[in-house]
Amino acid sequence: MVNVDTYLHLIGAEVLIILGIVIPLLYDQTHKRVLCIVLAIVLGLMLAHFVSHALPKRLANFIYSSHHAYRALQTQRMERT
Amino acid sequence: MNIALPTIAACLAVSLCSLSSAFALGLSPDTLKRSVPFLVALAVGVLLGDAFIHLIPDAVTRHGSVSDVCLTVLVGVFGFFVLEKLVRWRHDHKVDTQPNSSAILPLAKMNLIGDAIHNFVDGILIAGSFLSDPVVGLTTTLAIIAHEVPQELGDVGALLRGGYRPRQAVLYNFYCSLSVLPGALFTLLLSQVAESSLTVLLPIAAGGFIYIAASDLIPVLHERSSFHHLGGQSAVFALGIGFMQAVVLFEQTLLRP
């Protein structure tokens, strides 16, 4: 089963693509501005999540993946979930 | 595991597919003008194929009674007829059938209403299948996406014929496709009511499609009577029906245990 983070990333990516296509099609400048703000918020949230969660996790995996203690910790977490 | 997130992701994927028609904006106005009759023919084939090959058999499987489903299809046809009369009456008492004025033809508005109902039903189907099993939800989403792409393309052709500008046609078509989300949320909140409402909503959507294709779009195809249009439009019409049949076969392969 895919975890919640993956679904949130998928939803975020879909919203970004939709907004990226829809914004250039709009005629009304006010609507355009509002959707640009929404796009910036979604992009900001996704980047913040990447910097605060995904990136440190990847770095830790890269640095400590050869350490037995780290691998054991990961396995314990997997079994708990 | 919360089932709402995969359902929302699937619904957004379906809405995203409706924007696939945005590629038409890259075509030159002349090319677009030449391709509109063929897009309308595609819309006719896909709408009739969807109604007769997909929606009505699905409603019969759920309901069990063929005569009740046929009666509800007729109610759908009648409802759309009354709706179009209301649109015409409200808009203009002397609506011209040629798009030579800036007015939007009723066929475009009817198409938007029919598409919105259809997408609402799609939302119910997606959420219902995710509630039963995530794998069935995924296969249902794939099947809906497969029939959505040619249908949205045909719908944009019908909207262009109805007097909308290309950008407006793509945008309004996208706004209608967003009705998939309320359909899914309605099912997630009231799953039993939504499930039973499908026996009515599926044939009504089918009736709407039959009405739009037969009364609004087929007369548009008859406006051009050259041999080139006879061959081209017939081929694209058949392609639309063939595509819907292929989607049904694809669905059966996916959902086979």
Verbal overview:
The complex is a heterodimer of chains A (81) and B (257). Helices cover 88% and strands 0% of the residues of chain A. The model of chain A has no long low-confidence stretch (mean pLDDT 83). Chain A has three helices and no strands. The longest helix of chain A has 36 residues, at 29-64. Chain A has one domain (4-80). Chain A is mostly helical and 81 residues long. By secondary structure, chain B is mainly α. In chain B, 83% of the residues lie in helices and 0% in strands. Chain B has helices at 4-18, 29-63, 66-91, 106-132, 134-161, 166-177, 180-189, 191-221, 227-255. Chain B is globular and about 50 Å long. Chain A binds chain B through residues 1-2, 4, 7-8, 10-11, 14-15, 17-18, 21-22, 25-27, and chain B through 1-2, 5-6, 8-9, 12-13, 15-16, 19, 22, 25, 134, 167, 170-171, 174.
List the helices and strands and how they pair.
The complex is a heterodimer of chains A (81) and B (257).
Chain A: H1 4-25, H2 29-64, H3 68-80
Chain B: H1 4-18, H2 29-63, H3 66-91, H4 106-132, H5 134-161, H6 166-177, H7 180-189, H8 191-221, H9 227-255
Helix pairs in contact in B: 1-4, 1-5, 1-6, 1-7, 2-3, 2-5, 2-8, 2-9, 3-4, 3-8, 4-5, 4-6, 4-7, 4-8, 5-6, 5-9, 7-8
Straight-line N-to-C gap of chain B: 23 Å
Rounded average pLDDT of chain A: 83
Task: Characterize the biggest β-sheet of chain B.
Answer: none
- How many structural domains does the protein architecture of chain A include? 1
Count of individual beta strands of chain A: 0
Determine the strand fraction of chain B and express it as a percent band: under 5%
Return residue spans of chain A where pLDDT drops below 50 for at least 5 consecutive residues. none
Enumerate how many helices of chain A there are, as a single number.
3
The helix content of chain A is over 70%
Q: What Rg of chain A do the Cα atoms give?
A: 18 Å
Helical residue percent band of chain B: over 70%
| Structural class label of chain A | mainly alpha
Query: What's the N-to-C terminus distance of chain A?
Result: 11 Å
What is the H/E order of chain A? Answer: HHH
Number of helices of chain B: 9
Anisotropy-based shape of chain B = globular
- Main sheet of chain A, how many strands, which sense, barrel? none
**Major interchain interface with per-chain residue totals:** A-B, 16 and 18 residues
Q: Which residues of chain B form runs of ≥5 with pLDDT under 50?
A: none
Q: How large a portion of the residues of chain A is in β-strands, by DSSP E?
A: under 5%
Anisotropy-based shape of chain A? elongated
